[in-house]
Amino acid sequence: MSLPVQLFTATDSHTIRFHQLQRGTSDRVRNKRVNERTGEEVPPDEIVKGFDTGDEYVLVEPDELEDIAPGRSRELEITGFVDLEDVEPIFFDKTYYLGPKSEQYAKVYALLEEALEHAGKAGIATFVMRNREYLVALKAEAGILTLHTLHWADEIRDPHKEIDQLPGRTKLADRELKMAEQLIDSLSMDWDPEDFHDTFQEKVEELIKAKKKGETVEKAEQPAESTNVVDLMDALRASLDQAKTKKNAPSKTKKKATSKKTASERPSRRKSASSLDSLTKSELYKLASEADIAGRSAMSREELVKALAGAQGRHHAAAS
Q1: Full domain range(s) for residue 86
Q2: Using alpha carbons only, what angle is made at residue 138 by residues 133 and 143, rounded to the nearest 5 degrees?
Q3: What is the pLDDT of residues 211-227, one digit of tens each?
């Protein structure tokens, strides 16, 4: 079956992008397409694709690639339907939202979305975009259709050929395995993507603000040096004790509800000093960002609580 659709980008990158400048000036440095023999710039309409066979190039015009494109359309050619969990994570690449190509396809779009939702299946399809054929998984998600581009099977590398020192099936003692499982259990948590943020991105923003003001920023701490651990049990026991200590800490006893909340349902960001201990590190970090507390990216949970309490104290003193 086929389904005429439109693609919409589902994700965005928050990476800060820099222009290239010549040092000591504000002059942009731009990349150009140049003829490597003559050094002259080549306009886009004079560029063709060439495949190196070893002793010569086989030239291919853009129109020739378009002429041989399978289907020569944006229609999804659905081959069949599979259980989504059967598709291993390594095959997934990018995600897009799908919308019907026009109003006349709205009903078939809605029909397929609801049918996939009820069946718990994903459609496996192919389509061509920008002179390339894609293998994709079509899924019903939150009332719309989403499209996940997949790697082809021959694009997946064999780990046994890529990694020289894989341990294989190592014989493990029962007590070692039990302690490792206890460690995993003690660190188990509910998955909430909002609990995680790009701390390096925050540091880049702080660096830009500081340099704009002619200031400097504190350097990040160097990572701890790795040690040669001889006794696996000692290492597991130490990790387990540390995990239990964190889990049983008074400040960690009050956790967010398991059910997800919308932005309007979440508690107010304005917290009294006495309520800071009940917040997660992620919530504390968001408050620190709003308060523009310097060095927050490198702070521990306890340091965030102390810094926020100090900031609130200064605010109240200034207000009075």
Answers
A1: 2-11+68-154
A2: 140
A3: 888 888 777 777 666 55
